[in-house]
Amino acid sequence: MNRAQSSLSLFRVGLWDALPIAASYILFGAIFGMMALQAGLTSWESVAMSIFVYSGAAQFSAISMLADHAGMWAILITTVLLNTRHFLMGLSLSPYYQRFSFGQVTGLAFYLTDEQYAVTLNRFRHYPSQLPYILGVSLSLHTAWICGTWIGTVAGQWIPDPAALGLGFSFTAMFLALAYYQLTSWLRILTFVMCGVLAVYLSLLLPNGLHLLIAGLVAFGVGYLLPDPKISIPPQTADAAAKGVESA
Amino acid sequence: MNLFWLYVLMSILTYVSRRAFLSLPDHWLSPRMRSGLSYIPVGIFAALIFPSLFASEQQWVFQPVPLVASAVCLLVMAFSKNVFLSFGVSLGLVVLVSVGIL
């Protein structure tokens, strides 16, 4: 019973921590739904894409390319390029997923988005990686994305333009606030700025997504070549779990 | 185009990229490897943040409002250590300027 309550409590904390991003997901999902209709998809086809593909960048690119009558292989190659960043995200999460079974990791992998990565990684700084928490974050974001898409397909004409309201900044604001916790030494700050400058330069030259992969690889190289003595095994003990819950 | 197969293949490609390295064998995770892995978020966050501030549609841009809001976001984080507050204050600032209230 206590275990069940604890799981429920962790699930709720996950939902709560994901709330600001879930709100943005609804809005941007609605924009996607609206654009998908304009590209010629039906309401159900748009929602199905959000349910099964669940990748904002790939979905926006795909409908834009569908509207331009691009071929399937062109869309699939773009999807691969946009998704290369997930290789490194998965790699950096792997120490925290060691405690999960093969089946659990296989299930959780579906929900690995940029925002889920940012929110859960922030949690893992102080607490063990716990399945109910990750599920709380993941399911709320996926649900928000699906609901947003559906809203966009049925009420697209009433959706405000996020750019006009400045809401495009919402993801940047969340990433910045969460990145703050990563900047714990001068070397990390320097790496952050260096990778940022490199990413801006590369984003002007390369297809979407590759600049993230390269910036992540450069940062990995810095950490590998100049090992940080303070890096330890992530807290996975019962003591750490017993500390309770913490919002992001 | 057959949307069914497009969705199936997009889903598989996206899923495989997410699943591929999510579980590594224990013996791969040496202290040096862990240090390298701990730096990946620094690079990923930088690559998510900087281009959104300085690049748009493959062009260099200078956007004072998001830049000031970003500074505010980091300052609020430094003083409050509260992600929600930093997110809300900085986003609120951009929204107020965008709708012409500030």
Automatic annotation (TrEMBL), chain A:
Subcellular location: Cell membrane
Membrane topology: Multi-pass membrane protein
GO cellular component: plasma membrane
A Pfam family it matches: AzlC
Spans traversing the lipid bilayer: 18-37, 49-67, 131-151, 163-181
Keyword list, A-Z: Cell membrane, Membrane, Transmembrane, Transmembrane helix, Transport
One Gene Ontology biological process: L-valine transmembrane transport
Family of this protein: Belongs to the AzlC family.
Protein name: Branched-chain amino acid ABC transporter permease
Organism: Brevibacillus panacihumi
UniProtKB/TrEMBL annotation, chain B:
Top-level taxonomic group: Bacteria
Coiled-coil stretches noted in the UniProt entry, renumbered to this chain: none
Leader peptide range in chain numbering: none
Segments crossing the lipid bilayer: 6-24, 36-54, 60-78, 83-101
Short name of one Pfam family: AzlD
Keyword annotations from UniProtKB, A to Z: Membrane, Transmembrane, Transmembrane helix
InterPro entries, per database record: Brnchd-chn_aa_trnsp_AzlD
Protein name in UniProt: AzlD domain-containing protein
